[in-house]
Amino acid sequence: MDEFPQVLTIEEASKYLRIPLSTLYKLAQDGKIPCQKVGRHWRFRKETIDNWLDERSVLPNKPASNQS
Where are the chain's structural domains? Predict the structure, then answer.
């Protein structure tokens, strides 16, 4: 699959994020990842997932300068 659709199923989101399906179910059920439940099915907007990832990016710490 070269390109992911705008709205992802939980299986597609798992592949996109490269995390186990069980982990994604847990994140979704706990409200820790942006998604919606449509009937019995979880749906994820790709753009929202990308923004969520960007917001949680860890930036390297600046090295402390040793000026005495």
Answer: 7-55
Residue type, 65: S
Q: pTM above 0.90?
A: no
Give pLDDT tens digits for 2-48.
589 999 999 999 999 999 999 999 999 999 999 999 999 999 999 99
Looking at domain 7-55, which of 3.90.105, 3.40.50, 3.90.1720, 3.30.70 is its CATH number? Answer: 3.90.105
Neighbouring-strand partners of residue 37: 42
- Strand order in 7-9's β-sheet? 7-9, 41-45, 36-38
Characterize 14-37 residue by residue with b for buried, 16 or more Cβ atoms within 10 angstroms of its Cβ, and e for exposed. Answer: bebbeeeeeebeebbeeeebebee
